[in-house]
Amino acid sequence: MTPSVRRTRRMLELAGAGAAALLTLSACSSSSGSSNTASDSSGSASSKLSGTVTVFAAASLQESFTALGKEFEQQHPGTKVTFSFGGSDTLAASITGGAPADVFAAASPKTMATVTDAKDAAGAPVTFVRNQLEIATLPGNPGKVASLKDLTKPGLKVVLCDKTVPCGAAAQKALDASHLKLTPVSYEQDVKSALNKVELKEADAAVVYKTDVHAAGDKVEGVEFPESAKAVNDYPIALLKNAKNAETAKAFIALVRSAEGQKVLGEAGFLKP
């Protein structure tokens, strides 16, 4: 074999080896790309929201939160939002007592503090709406209630929320600011119970929230009073430390705070935070 033939064969062998190396590298790169794609796809699938979110919320949020819960379930198929509505102080006590919940929405910073002081919240609570008091009377306002002072009329049956409940504390604050003393026929454990007394005609009037008067429709008549401006309640919301479905709970809180959520709450009569 001549030297020139040997050189030609050697060059062909080197070229073949290089091509094989390139093919191997290309295959590895393709395999790596496929692996990354599968990983990305898997990550995307695992981030899909699912499961049940348990929300403890102030009674005054019942109508608006129920609507937002349904909207959330429609936006995220495979999720379910369950609610426990009641007096904020009772709900806070349940949470610190170990009741399973993912989210707490309170009607005052004071009741939220019960939970945060016990270190049962994950992160700092955020105010998402505010609420103002209004007097609910029987339809047609037969007691001719036109002011907070009118609630002290002899013979008028008035209901208040208990002073430990945010609506009751706010009512007492308004009464104190007006230097008025009022002896109600009953103190109720949450605002819906107070309103219900008027709806059932067991009371002539009750001091509740504007949102509750709005929700009651023609079952009651609302009477605004200027002193309510001195007793506006901030409503904070927080993810709970022992949340079993934290990611989905965070998404529900995000909906509440979103423009869409704020629109629903605003239409219910809540004030902007």
Automatic annotation (TrEMBL):
Pfam families in alphabetical order: SBP_bac_11
Domain of life: Bacteria
One term of GO molecular function: molybdate ion binding
InterPro entries found in the cross-reference section: ModA, ModA/WtpA
Signal peptide: 1-29
Keyword Secreted among UniProt keywords: no
Residue sites binding molybdate per the record: 60, 88, 191, 209
UniProt-listed Gene3D superfamilies: Periplasmic binding protein-like II
Metal-binding is among the record's keywords: yes
GO biological process, one term: molybdate ion transport
Keywords: Metal-binding, Molybdenum, Signal
NCBIfam families hit by this protein: modA (TIGR01256)
Family statement: Belongs to the bacterial solute-binding protein ModA family.
The protein's name in its UniProt record: Molybdate transport system substrate-binding protein
